[in-house]
Amino acid sequence: MEVDINWFAILGFAFGVAAVLRWIFHDIANFTNTPKLIISHGPFVVNWQSIDTEETRRFVHFEVISKKGRFAHQCTAKARIIKHPPDVTILQEEYPLHWADAPYSTVSTKAEPVDIRAEAKRLDVAFTTSFHSGQSWLAMPLALAAPDKVPQAALPPGEYTLEVVVSCENGKGDAKTIKIISPTEGKDLLLLTLAHP
Asked: Is residue 135 part of a domain?
């Protein structure tokens, strides 16, 4: 008895299996190479003295890294106020946050995105200034340029619970729940990390 072998069917099946294996391998490779942002170190407090004026600012910030140094493209950060003092009116739902090396001005309300590799990037969350006492501000780029002209970023004295979220175009982000103690004296600005829900 003679058996007919359909070589076209066998080759078609082999090519189909190879295509599926290639697709699976490609997905696994992409998954393992996808950047993952981590709000890693902090919170830190730093005092900054202007070289042009007599102004002193106190910043609370975190450092953000890309896990395993993978290239994270167009990274942004925002804060959302979850809880605030009962006598404070919130004027905005989400606040873009400032990366320390990115420029800011009185013209733009958005934060400039940054690329993150192995070196940590500093993410400013809030600040006080010696020129305007009695409260702190969220570190929106516009507020950094002109704090007295940006009431939506002002944090009158009290305790605030915020969610800080970092994200990038080509990978996964991270989030932290924090508490900011907005002081009447700038030197008392404080930020605490809470367990993320």
From this structure: yes
Residue 25 covered by a domain:
no
Query: Cα(193)–Cα(167) distance, rounded to whole angstroms?
Result: 19
Q: What are the contacts of 103-110 at 24+ separation with CB within 8 A?
A: 104/141, 104/142, 104/144, 104/145, 105/141, 105/145, 106/142, 106/145, 106/146, 106/149, 108/141, 108/142, 109/140, 109/141, 109/142, 110/141
Number of domains within the chain: 1
Is residue 173 a part of any domain in this protein? yes
In this prediction, residue 30 has a pLDDT band, given cuts at 50, 70 and 90, of very low
- The pLDDT of residue 187 is 84
Please report which confidence band the pLDDT of residue 8 belongs to, taking 50, 70 and 90 as the band edges: low
Three-state DSSP class for residue 84: coil
Domain assignment present for 88: yes
Measured distance CA(142)–CA(139) in Å, rounded:
8
pTM for the predicted model, two decimal places: 0.78
- Of 172, 178, 173, 181, which is closest to residue 197 (Cα–Cα)? 178
Where on the phi/psi map is residue 134: left (φ > 0), alpha (ψ -120 to 50), or beta?
A: left
Range of the domain at 119: 35-194
* Pairwise CA distance, residues 61 & 77, whole Å: 12
